[in-house]
Every structure is written in C-alpha cells, then in structure tokens.
Amino acid sequence: MAAPRAEVVIDLDNLRHNVAHLDALAPGAGTMAVVKADGYGHGAVEVARAAVQAGAAWLGSCSLDEALRLRAAGLTAPILAWLDPPGTDYAPGVEQGIDLSASSPRQLDDIADAATRAGRTARVHLKVDTGLSRGGCPPADWPELVEKAARTPNVRVHAVWSHLAVADEVGHPGTDAQAARFDDAFREARAAGLDPLRHLANSAALLTRSDLHFDLVRPGIAVYGLNPVPVPADLRPVMTFRSSVALTKRIAVGESVSYGMTWTAKSDTTLALVPVGYADGVPRALSNRMHVWLGGRRRPVVGRVCMDQVVVDCGDDRPAEGDEVVLFGAGERGEPTVREWADTTGTIDYEIVTGMYRPRVTRVYR
Ligand SMILES: *Cc1c(COP(=O)(O)O)cnc(C)c1O
C-alpha cells in the first residue's frame, strides 16, 4: 500500500467515547450531536452513526439539505435543521420527519405551507434571540411568534431554543443574561398555550453550566474531542492529519529552503519533503511556525508552506522516505495538536478541523 499523501484519520472509538461521556455529564437531558458542516470536517454520516451508537438521541445540522442526507443514509434519529435561506422548500424535510427551526413569522409560514403540501404536521423548534443577535426571534417579537405558532394548523411546536454567545468564557455575565431572557421566552410560550421542550447548551455550556442543560444539550466541538473551555474534561481528539516523507536530502550550510528563501541552514542538515501544503489544509500562516511528528519526535517545518508541500528540518537524523509524518493528532505522544495550529494562526480549532474537508485530502475511519 502506498504511503499516504494527505490523509485524515477519524477515530470513531474516540468519538463514541466523547459522546457517551458528554451524555453522562448531562444526565437529565438528551444529547443532540451536532454534525453540521460535514460533521465539523469529520464526515457527517459516519459521525452521526457513531454518535447514535454511543447514545446521542438527536442529531443537529445547519441546513435542511444536510439533514436530508443523514436520513437518506438511513439515520432514523430525530434531526433538527436550523438555517436555510428564503425560498427553501421544506416539504421534503416535513416528509422525512426532520424537525425545523423558525425564528420569524415568515419562516413559520414557509414551514406551515410545506406541511400543508406534504399532508403532514411539521415539528417546529421556535428559536428566540437571547443576545447573540444572529438567528432567533427578537424578544420584542416573540409573543407574536409563539401566539401565531399556537394557532397555525399543521405545525406542532416541539421546543423553544436559543444559542449562547459567550459560554466558552466561563463566568461571563452574558450567559446569565441570556439564560434570563430564555426563561422569559419559555414562560411566554407556555402562556400562549404551548408545552415545549427547551434547549440552549452548546459544548461549553454542557461542560460548565449544568443549570442550563434543560431537556436537550447540543454539543458540537466536544463530540470531536476538542474542549472549548479551560476546564478538564475526558475528551479524546478524533481527527489525526498525516502524510509521509516523499523525499530526503542533505543540504549544505548556507542553503535556503522554499519560496522567498525565508530560512537558511545554519549547518549541513537533512531535509524531509512532505507532500501536503495549503491546498491540503496546512495554513500558509504557519510558515516557519509549525512542527510535525516524524521519527518519534517533533521537528520544525522550515521555510514557507507551499500549495502542495512543506519541508522539515531533520538535522543529522535520516528519516526514511515513506516514513509517517503526523501534522496534527491527539497530542498524546507530543505530536502537534489542532489547538496548537489554531493558537498560532489566531483562530479556533473549529475552523481548522472544518477546513480539512477538501477534495485532495482522503479520509479514513478507524
Ligand atoms: C454549532 C452549533 C452548536 C454546537 O456548538 P459547539 O460550540 O461546537 O458545541 C450548537 N447549537 C447551534 C445552534 C450551533 O449552530
């Protein structure tokens, strides 16, 4: 078998461990594993199957299309889809028993219209904006929305929900303010005659705010083993990014490496060429600022990250062509982690793993 060029390895045992652990941390609530954006770059269908095996009662996706793909793959668990543009035909979603979110009377009308055409009742989660100012109904318009929902035929309100803005900053007063508004919204929904479930918590709130677990928790990033809060949790990273040594060579002191000649050898040294670059998800901003795991230790990538390749300085060690190179992994052996890449490039681990969904990167499941 050829050595891998650019490969992400998805450890579904770790994913199942994470889901079971998260589910146990919220004992009174069901777990909705969020698998939007192709399972945060890990593969939505495979992740969804493993999550359900490990105890996730629900699946969460952003678009209806993502939800329908899960259904088409045979996933029968309840699925919530929460964001699509105007003009979306929700009828296939209603037919497939996908729960749909409504943040406004217009969205509710679109869903009710689809339910009428599908000849079925649509299950709706009404979303209230409690302070993120993104999706969700503003509190001022909320009474009108819940009253409308209560009298719209073919629509049954299953839950009211909202999304948190600063749950990853533990102790931030913004979360309490959002929780108070959420409470008001729930009471107004009850006053309108609804009897909905409630859900609010993302991974960060699941891990730090048991008072906000309500009926369902919606972890995303933690399912993939990445912890968004500086609080210990038994989470195991699911994605490893690996490649292999394509070529080795000695260069003499004074020779430079890669475009721009930004790195120059201070002594004779051995270089290993690794055939992954920014087209494969290695940020160019990591040029001269990253390491790889090669031959049992961390070694620096020297010079610029190119579109298709990076160069590793191995000093006087002589790795073999074909040797495995780990770009990032769980970190247990000392290999670089997703968090390391995110911190160095000024982003969050979410963006790194989600960005690994690329046509040239193969994905294998363990
Ligand atoms: C992405 C998302 C989540 C999961 O958030 P994490 O921070 O990854 O746990 C939960 N709810 C909604 C509405 C989301 O969009």
Automatic annotation (TrEMBL):
Residues recorded as bearing N6-(pyridoxal phosphate)lysine in the entry: 36
Instruction: Look up the domain of life of the source.
Output: Bacteria
- What GO MF terms are annotated? alanine racemase activity
Does the keyword NAD feature in the UniProt annotation?
no
Provide the alphabetized UniProt keywords.
Isomerase, Pyridoxal phosphate
E.C. designation(s): 5.1.1.1
Quote the InterPro entries the UniProt record gives.
Ala_racemase, Ala_racemase/Decarboxylase_C, Ala_racemase_C, Ala_racemase_N, Ala_racemase_pyridoxalP-BS, PLP-binding_barrel
Listed under catalytic activity are: L-alanine = D-alanine
* Keyword presence, Electron transport: no
Known pathway: Amino-acid biosynthesis; D-alanine biosynthesis; D-alanine from L-alanine: step 1/1
Q: Kindly list the positions annotated as binding substrate.
A: 134, 307
Needed cofactors, names only, are: pyridoxal 5'-phosphate
The enzyme's main class, written as a single word, is isomerase
Enzyme active site: 36, 259
Q: In what residue span(s) does the Alanine racemase C-terminal domain sit?
A: 238-366
Family stated for the protein in its record: Belongs to the alanine racemase family.
Q: Sum up the protein's function in the record's words.
A: Catalyzes the interconversion of L-alanine and D-alanine. May also act on other amino acids.
Name of the molecule in the record:
Alanine racemase
